[in-house]
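DM between two lab members

TW: hey, do you still have the thioredoxin-dependent peroxiredoxin entry open?
JB: yeah, one sec
JB: this one, 209 aa:
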Amino acid sequence: MKLNEKLELIQKEMAKNVPVDILNAFGQSLHELMELNLEKRALKVGDIAPDFTLLDANGSPVSLYDTLQHNPVILTFFRGNWCPFCMAELAHYQEAINNKIVDSAMVIAISPQTIHFNHDVTTKNNLEFKILSDKGNEIADKYGLVFTLQENIRDIYRNIGADLELFNNDNTYKLPIPATYLIDKNKKIVFSSVSTNYMERADVCDIKL
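TW: and the structure you got?
JB:
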């Protein structure tokens, strides 16, 4: 099953199981964010990817440029363990690794959540690729991906288990819009998929490796 099919199934399940008022609040929030055209600030194909060194799920430092010395990198930014669309995306990458479509060394995922939660998702889902903690969204900001969640929806997030202050260990309510890049060994972005709509993600098969 392709990733977009899995994401559509999640939407259908939410439509059946999530109260209408919460669905409407999500829809209004997303509509407002999409009107801001947040993607226009994001790095694009042809740009040089900024370097970073972040800690992985085991607390070990991982450098983008060091990794690029050995292989190109699929770099994806996700919101957190609390997001079912993000979890489907991470599972999709692991499936691609299992099926030898990509090598685990090529994939790096970045989230603003703490190392604890990255370790949790890695171990529970047997993920073989690096999940890095971007405290304060500093790296996501360099890639032009950061926005602040609207105040009127924060309590709804918290009440359904998406307590961003807990997951990210800060009170900024900043998140990255989902983005996937393919970065070649010359540090250049050669594929880009960025969307404010968190229900849309790039399928591995769409990335020209």
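TW: got it. The chain has one domain: 3-204. The mean pLDDT is 96.
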